[in-house]
Amino acid sequence: MRRGWKMALSWGLRCCRRVLSWVPVLVIVLVVLWSYYAYVFELCLVTVLSPAEKVIYLIFYHAIFVFFTWTYWKSIFTLPQQPNQKFHLSYSDKERYENEERPEVQKQMLIDMAKKLPVYTRTGSGAVRFCDRCHLIKPDRCHHCSVCAMCVLKMDHHCPWGNCPVFAQSSMFFFSSLWPACFLSAL
């Protein structure tokens, strides 16, 4: 009975954390929507009197706005690249590794398994990098994202403003969304 209560509490906390992690994204969306209203309706449609000037302002603004929206969307929803299946331990290797109690033998087992993989980066003590949560031998530049609960190739950090890990493919979209954001904020 008591264990079920703890599991329900843990599930509730994970659910709340997952919902609250989208608050910064919601803040950005609300700021962008407010700026859209302020620029299009208040400035262009109400304040500017010349119809030709309104059209030029609106076309210019919408081109940049659409580019910003697309790149921000892509930076949030581009799926992280995960290591291949060959980096995951087989079921028998995983059982052998978990049943072994001596750390030096575990270290040697990982070295033997990593010989056939393209892994060059080691830990400070010379051991093969291994993720205990995902049960895989980490390839070079692979890190475990604790928020997403997965190993991500070429990961930099988990960005709270996009609620996603920043990695090689998503950083291109992120940096592409910065210049229109700066330009739109200057207008």
UniProtKB/TrEMBL annotation:
Pfam families: DHHC. The chain crosses the membrane at residues 20-39, 55-73. It catalyses: L-cysteinyl-[protein] + hexadecanoyl-CoA = S-hexadecanoyl-L-cysteinyl-[protein] + CoA. Keywords: Acyltransferase, Membrane, Transferase, Transmembrane, Transmembrane helix. InterPro entries: Palmitoyltrfase_DHHC, PFA4/ZDH16/20/ERF2-like. The DHHC domain is required for palmitoyltransferase activity. This is Palmitoyltransferase. The lineage of its organism: Eukaryota, Metazoa, Chordata, Craniata, Vertebrata.
